[in-house]
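Example for tutorial group B:
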């Protein structure tokens, strides 16, 4: 925990071969964050282009008011590792994550800080390149598409409505940092961070930000391969990094939703429906514990007793929706009670 006279803001900036942008980045930081109660933490992730040397030269000039911290990692370990190392030594009440390549505007980081500082109920703000009425330049269609698909999948898995889960500009209150434990070393850090924030019941706010993409020739590191890797992290954080009770709920709801799927189609079509409904069941298990899930199952079973053929299918669908509605109501009613663990 930060002490009474600690820094109000820590800005963590991971760096890997960014010598082209560092001088301009440093000038922008001085323009918007040049105060004694702010610390800037540069984490050089094994750069080989002279980035560390330049940062040391900038540090020695001492023509700034903020505290300048520089961490040098011996080998390139990934953005996630650099962020983790920066957070470890941070002292600020708020921690702001900023990329070094200036694709995201430092001015927007300042705006984000002012908003969260004035609104004590807000503990977390993510930048979004898709909510902005600000200036944009983005020529990477495929990367852009993967970001939007990943954000959609994240929203389905975690019942959120984020537009840009991968944006590198984020600010968190110290209370959020104390609740999470980051472990992903590469660009999957964005999904790891967002999922842990949601799991710890913090609300994620979004702020539209400017975006000026850079090409590979200009040093862009992330590729479409990283976008595909993020699918792995989405599956991992949602279906494997769970408590025992959640995993039991997922298995339970997957079984009875497979039963629902068995009421649809014939032959290969029937098998496909079973697979789809099993997946839907696993999602239900993430949001409903055994008792509330049993309510859904009970209604489905009652529906299966009515009609024949298509009539049974319609009855099962109707009772499933009805059971889902009642389960949601029960979950809300028991949210703050001692029975919350079971619902």
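The residue assignment follows.
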């Amino acid at each position: 925990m930060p002490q009474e006279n600690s820094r109000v803001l820590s800005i963590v900036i991971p760096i890997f071969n960014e010598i082209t942008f560092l001088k301009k980045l440093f000038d922008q930081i001085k323009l918007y964050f040049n105060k004694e109660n702010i610390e800037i933490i540069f984490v050089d992730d094994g750069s080989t282009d002279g980035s560390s040397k330049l940062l040391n030269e900038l540090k020695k000039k001492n023509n700034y008011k903020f505290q300048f911290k520089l961490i040098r990692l011996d080998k390139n370990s990934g953005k996630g590792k650099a962020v983790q190392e920066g957070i470890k030594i941070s002292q600020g009440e708020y921690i702001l994550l900023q990329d070094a390549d200036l694709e995201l505007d430092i001015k927007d980081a300042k705006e984000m800080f002012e908003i969260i500082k004035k609104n004590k109920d807000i503990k977390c703000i993510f930048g979004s390149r898709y909510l902005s009425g600000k200036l944009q330049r983005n020529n990477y269609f495929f990367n852009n598409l993967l970001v939007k698909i990943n954000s959609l999948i994240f929203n389905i898995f975690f019942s959120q409505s984020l537009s840009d889960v991968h944006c590198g500009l984020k600010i968190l209150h110290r209370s959020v940092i104390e609740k999470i434990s980051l472990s992903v070393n590469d660009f999957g850090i964005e999904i790891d961070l967002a999922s842990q924030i949601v799991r710890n019941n913090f609300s994620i706010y979004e702020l539209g930000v400017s975006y000026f993409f850079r090409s590979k020739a200009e040093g862009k590191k992330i590729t479409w391969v990283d976008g595909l890797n993020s699918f792995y992290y989405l599956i991992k954080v949602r279906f494997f990094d769970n408590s025992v009770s959640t995993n039991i709920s997922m298995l339970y709801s997957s079984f009875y939703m497979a039963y629902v799927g068995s009421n649809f189609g014939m032959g290969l079509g029937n098998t496909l429906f079973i697979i789809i409904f099993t997946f839907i069941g696993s999602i239900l298990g993430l949001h409903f514990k055994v008792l509330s899930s049993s309510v859904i199952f009970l209604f489905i079973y009652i529906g299966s007793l009515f009609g024949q053929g298509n009539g049974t299918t319609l009855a099962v669908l109707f009772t499933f929706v009805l059971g889902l509605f009642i389960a949601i109501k029960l979950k809300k009613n028991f949210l703050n009670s001692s029975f919350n663990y079971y619902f």
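Confidence is low (pLDDT under 50) at residues 1-5. Compare this with the pattern of hydrophobic and polar residues in the output above.
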